């Protein structure tokens, strides 16, 4: 990783592609969570990934980081296709944080960062067990690097605290420091400001700019639109697993399809709209066929109903006529009377 100096100078930006996802598709049984998504992240860029709940953003992240093996498509990092294995992806240079914080809660802040460092330490098992000079030197270097990262996120004074005792916003920052410990060239952040207050969100924004200025490309999922449009050079919007649009912040935030997707309003050419229309047409057809089949029966049912009504009318006109229901009604009335009596008597006894 580059030195820790942070600047706001982005003139050194190049168009070197760091991440290239091509036609990534992920199916879970009959559900296509991600459908043919292409995405590039270039060196020096902060790219945002937005979309309504369930749009497939986290599933896409999981495909990029080897947690899921995409059903179709490929993911390359700096021109090399990545093997779908999380530790190999980390070794290659991609680090990530999770939507639900995943820290080692009973370990210290420093230990959590050291865990993130292990892919970059070369000392083997025997060296570690025997704690030879090589191991001690490597351990000291790792600790120095971890402390540097803690200073970077402003948590050096809490190095010996247990992770579980940190406030929520600091836990999120610690997760970022742990990801940075693997010296990535690209970091994927899954909702880094979730649960943060506005001040913490602002600080997170500064932290991400600083990470970019260290030479690490960033791909970030967020629901906070103000945060994303302020932060990102480019934004891609997923809807129902498909990439709806990709462009600069102003292009994306002004796009009425994006607004409609967030408000749940259907729009022309909406991803999945053709499939929905097909299913709706098939359902309407099936309903119409069922109705047509049921029609003669319905007509037949209608006649006796008319007769019954006529009979009932006759009965109304002949109140003296015996009815089978009458004794049952009498019995019910008697039973009601009995139960009322018994309740009353019980209440009386109780009193
Ligand atoms: N392991 C899984 N098995 C089956 N379905 C899954 C699995 N993971 C995700 N899904 C489904 O895939 C779809 C996309 O989910 P995903 O979590 O990727 O969306 P998201 O855009 O990250 O949503 P959110 O913004 O709410 O986090 C959803 O319908 C979800 O239920």
UniProtKB/TrEMBL annotation:
PANTHER family linked to this entry: AMINO ACID ABC TRANSPORTER ATP-BINDING PROTEIN, CONSERVED COMPONENT OF ABC TRANSPORTER FOR NATURAL AMINO ACIDS-RELATED
InterPro entries: AAA+_ATPase, ABC_AA/LPS_Transport, ABC_transporter-like_ATP-bd, BCA_ABC_TP_C, P-loop_NTPase
Protein name (database record): ABC transporter domain-containing protein
Entry keyword Iron-sulfur: no
Keywords: ATP-binding, Nucleotide-binding, Transport
Region Disordered, annotated ranges: 278-351
ABC transporter domain location: 19-265
């Amino acid at each position: 990783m580059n030195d820790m100096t942070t600047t706001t100078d982005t003139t050194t930006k190049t168009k070197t592609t760091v991440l290239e996802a091509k036609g990534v598709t992920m199916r879970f049984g009959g559900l296509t969570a991600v459908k043919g998504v292409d995405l590039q992240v270039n060196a020096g860029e902060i790219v945002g990934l937005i979309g309504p709940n369930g749009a497939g953003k986290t599933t896409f992240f999981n495909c990029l980081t080897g947690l899921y093996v995409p059903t179709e498509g490929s993911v390359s990092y700096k021109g090399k296709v990545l093997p779908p294995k999380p530790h190999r992806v980390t070794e290659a240079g991609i680090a990530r944080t999770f939507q639900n914080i995943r820290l080692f809660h009973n370990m210290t802040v420093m230990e959590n960062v050291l865990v993130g460092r292990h892919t970059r330490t070369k000392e083997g098992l025997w060296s570690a067990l025997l704690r030879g000079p090589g191991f001690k030197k490597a351990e000291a270097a790792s600790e120095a690097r971890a402390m540097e990262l803690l200073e970077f996120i402003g948590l050096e004074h809490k190095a010996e605290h247990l992770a579980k005792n940190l406030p929520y916003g600091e836990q999120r920052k610690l997760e970022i420091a742990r990801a940075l410990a693997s010296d990535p060239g690209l970091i994927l952040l899954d909702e880094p400001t979730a649960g943060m207050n506005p001040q913490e969100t602002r600080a997170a924004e500064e932290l991400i700019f600083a990470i970019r200025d260290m030479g690490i490309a960033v791909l970030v999922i967020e629901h906070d639109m103000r945060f994303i449009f302020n932060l990102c050079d480019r934004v891609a919007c997923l809807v129902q697993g498909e990439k709806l649009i990709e462009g600069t912040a102003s292009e994306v935030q002004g796009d009425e399809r994006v607004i409609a997707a967030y408000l749940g309003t259907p729009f022309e050419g909406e991803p999945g709209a053709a499939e929905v229309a097909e299913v709706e047409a098939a359902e309407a057809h099936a309903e119409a066929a069922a109705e047509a089949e049921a029609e003669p029966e319905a007509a037949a049912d209608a006649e006796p109903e008319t007769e019954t009504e006529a009979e009932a009318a006759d009965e109304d006109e002949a109140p003296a006529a015996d009815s089978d229901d009458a004794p049952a009604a009498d019995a019910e009335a008697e039973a009601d009377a009995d139960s009322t009596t018994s309740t009353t008597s019980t209440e009386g006894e109780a009193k």
